[in-house]
Structures are given as structure tokens and as C-alpha cells.
Specification:
This protein has about 425 residues and is α/β, with parallel strands linked by helices. It has helices at about 10-20, 30-40, 85-95, 100-105, 120-125, 145-155, 215-220, 255-260, 275-285, 360-365, 375-385, 390-400, and strands at about 1-5, 25, 40-45, 60-65, 135-140, 160-165, 180-185, 195-200, 210-215, 300-305, 310-315, 330-335, 355. Helix 1 links the parallel strand 1 (about 1-5) and strand 2. It is globular.
Length: about 425
């Protein structure tokens, strides 16, 4: 079997499914487990730190791990940062067959910090019978130092190991998501997959096959390279993903409007309705069309959070790293003038921000449009933000599985 530790909603599992393979995921979060179940992924709901290893010994071909890494998290009070030496100590002890987790956990500022050491507990037990054949791990860039420690241990056990930072956009993911990756194998040389995309397209030459341009959000969402999402106002419902930014019933999300026939690409020469006009329309549930109130043209960008230094990317570029879990991290579509400002441009004429939907966020993570996210808005967005992009996972796993990855199997467009 392929063992997937901290399996989440199924980023790794989705990649394996596309390539005709299944894994067994260990996951604690009930909503991630529900998502996995509805997606058809095998799952054991458990605490990875308490689950025994013996059921997997003698039966495991590959080990996957994306453990929570509070000791490297820059969110919240950052107390876990002080636990990094304890995590390294736990990994060293577990690699030597010493289980000192109880003592080290008592000294941790964040009780979740030692979860990053749990994969070594499984790897040590499996190594006693010459398993697994390969290992693949993923986390935020700050964890690279921990992966180097894992790699050193694995090399001592006879593995070839590589670790480094990869940008998901270089592998066709419509998101510049940088992640620390660890790859190890007993049967082949461990090395990173060859990038398939670049910020600027590279033609084929004597030195390589060339690379396509990074995939834009417009392409991934199926809006076309020149289309822009128009946040058409329509009655009822609110945007997905956390507290509603507008009064209840004031407007639908971009995808909702598009699915219900209210969305259309903005033709040349057609301007968007002003904020003043659109607000009154929703309240009255009018059926009149959106006649332009002004002659300004707008382009749309995705703003990654509410901070002053937020990443803002236009629709014809990949998204920044998607992460959720706090209101400040919510992603919204924001409008900007497509042409230089004119004297009659004012704040009231700018279309209001529209919150990204879970469906759109999932597409930008390369999950299919119909992936069955379970839970409320916050629970769905938390799963999406923490997941491994399946397309990136596919590139990492294909060499270990001995298969040729076909990126076209990972449908991006809605």
C-alpha cells in the first residue's frame, strides 16, 4: 500500500487516483475525512501521533507526508517557533529508535509542534523490514531544514534523497506556491521533476524541450485569456468562504452568477455598472439588465488577504499562494482601472470586491470543479488552503510509480 500521513482532503490522493493508484490516508480532521470519503479515497480517521505502525509493516510501498508544522508557522502568536529545536531532537531520537515524544512534548509551547516528527516514527518501524521503497514529503519553505535532517537519516538507511524548494507554478499549477519538498528512494536516484512551465515561455532548443508559460488564473477558471469576471449583481445568497462582506442577499459570487447564467465575458466597449447603481438593483430584485453607468473599463485581480502588503495578481497571471484560516487571509476579486485614471474616476464608481468561492479556490489548487468539499465555508477553505495541489503531487509521484504523467488528466477549467 501507499501510506498517506496527515492526508487532508486528498491532494496527494487525487494525484494517485488520476494515475490509477490508491493510497490509505490517515487524517484527524472530521471535515477533511468527509471530503475524502465523498471523493472515494480510503481513509482511517485517527490521531497520527497515537496510531500504531504495526498494521503497515511489511505492506507499505511508499510513504507520503504533509505534517502540520506549527514550529515553522508565521501565523498567530508564533509560539511554535520556539519549538524547532525540540522537533529536531524528536526526529533524531525516533530515527534511533528512542521514543522521547512525551518528555519533549511537555516542553513544547505548541502541542502540535511535534507532529512534524511523526513521519520518522513510521519510517523507522518500516525500515526494520526494508520498507518503504520511496518517500515524498511536502511543507512550507521554512521546513526545508527539517527535511534536510530527514534526508540525512534516510541516506544512512540506504536511500537516495533530495530536498529543496519547488514553485508549483513551474509545474502547471495556476499559483506561485513555493513548498519545501523531500524525495527519497531505495530503487532509483531521487531528484526533482523537470519543470514544465516558466514565467516566460521558453522555446524548444538543443538544450531542452522548452517550457510553456505559467498557467494563469483565467485559463484555470475557464474564463479565457482575455475575458474578465464581471461580478454581476443578482438576488439572494452570499459569497462563500467566511463572513459575508456584503449585506445578506446582496449578490452572488462570480462562479454562482456564471453557473446561473448571469455571468458573461465583458465585450469590448461595454463598461461595468457603478457601485451606486448595482447596490440599489440587488435590494429591489429588479430584472433590468446591467446598463453601464460610466465609461470606465476595469480589469480584475485576486487579492490574497486584507493586509496592506497583500499579494495582488491580475487574472492573466497565476494566483499567489492560497492560504486560509483567518479573516485577514481571505481572497477577493478586486477591480482596477484597465486604462489610466481619468479626472471623473472616483471611489464610488469602482465595482465592489467579490469573494473567491471554494470552487474557484479548488480549481486554482488543480482540484476538479466538482470536487466534493465538505463542511461550512471556513472548513472548506481551510482544507483547500492546506492541501497539496494534485498536479504538483502528480509530478512528484509519477517517477516513483513508474508512470508517465499526462497533465491533461488534471482538468483545470470549470
Amino acid at each position: 500500500m501507499i501510506l498517506d500521513l496527515f492526508a487532508g482532503p486528498g491532494g496527494w490522493s487525487r494525484a494517485l487516483h488520476v494515475m490509477g493508484v490508491r493510497d490509505v490516508g490517515l487524517e484527524w480532521d472530521p471535515w477533511a475525512c468527509k471530503t475524502r470519503a465523498m471523493a472515494g479515497h480510503l481513509t482511517i480517521r485517527c490521531d497520527v501521533a497515537r496510531y500504531p505502525v504495526w498494521p503497515f509493516v511489511g505492506r507499505t510501498r511508499g510513504v507520503i507526508g504533509s505534517p502540520p508544522c506549527q514550529a515553522w508557522s508565521m501565523a498567530g502568536k508564533r509560539l511554535g517557533l520556539l519549538d524547532q529545536p525540540l522537533v529536531h531532537a524528536a526526529v533524531a531520537d525516533l530515527a534511533a529508535g528512542r521514543d522521547t515524544r512525551t518528555r519533549l512534548l511537555a516542553a513544547c509551547r505548541d502541542e502540535r509542534s511535534l507532529l512534524a516528527a511523526e513521519p520518522m516514527r513510521y519510517l523507522y518501524a518500516l525500515n526494520t523490514v526494508g520498507e518503504p521503497d520511496w518517500v515524498a514529503m511536502e511543507e512550507v519553505p521554512g521546513v526545508l531544514g527539517l527535511w534536510k535532517q530527514y534526508a540525512a537519516v534516510l541516506r544512512g538507511w540506504g536511500f537516495s534523497a533530495w530536498c529543496g524548494i519547488l514553485n508549483a507554478a513551474d509545474f502547471g499549477v495556476p499559483q506561485t506556491r513555493r513548498r519545501a519538498i523531500l524525495l527519497a528512494s531505495r530503487v532509483r536516484t531521487a531528484q526533482p521533476p523537470a519543470p514544465t512551465h516558466a514565467q516566460l515561455a521558453e522555446p524548444e532548443s538543443l538544450f531542452g524541450p522548452g517550457r510553456a508559460r505559467w498557467v494563469s488564473m483565467a485559463e484555470a477558471l475557464g474564463w479565457g485569456a482575455t475575458d474578465r469576471p464581471v461580478p454581476t449583481v443578482c438576488a439572494g445568497g452570499g459569497p462563500g468562504g467566511g463572513p459575508e462582506p456584503f449585506p445578506s442577499g446582496s449578490r452572488k459570487t462570480l462562479s454562482d452568477a456564471r453557473e446561473r447564467g448571469f455571468w458573461m465575458p465583458r465585450p469590448d466597449g461595454v463598461a461595468l455598472p457603478s457601485r451606486r447603481e448595482s447596490a440599489g438593483w440587488a435590494a429591489r430584485h429588479s430584472t433590468r439588465d446591467n446598463r453601464p453607468a460610466e465609461a470606465h473599463r476595469w480589469s480584475w485581480s485576486l487579492r490574497s488577504n486584507n493586509q496592506a502588503n497583500a499579494t495582488v495578481r491580475p487574472l492573466d497571471e497565476p494566483a499567489g499562494t492560497l492560504f486560509f484560516g483567518h479573516r485577514a487571509n481571505e481572497c477577493t476579486w478586486v477591480a482596477e482601472p484597465a486604462t489610466p485614471s481619468t479626472p471623473d474616476t472616483d471611489a464610488a464608481s469602482v465595482p465592489e470586491p467579490v469573494r473567491i468561492t471554494a470552487r474557484e479556490a479548488g480549481l486554482l489548487q488543480t482540484f476538479p470543479a466538482d470536487y466534493p468539499w465538505a463542511g461550512n465555508k471556513g472548513q472548506r477553505f481551510s482544507q483547500i488552503g492546506n492541501a497539496v495541489p494534485p498536479l504538483l503531487a502528480g509530478h512528484l509521484l509519477a517517477p516513483h510509480l513508474g508512470v508517465t504523467l499526462d497533465p491533461d488528466d488534471f482538468t483545470l477549467a470549470a
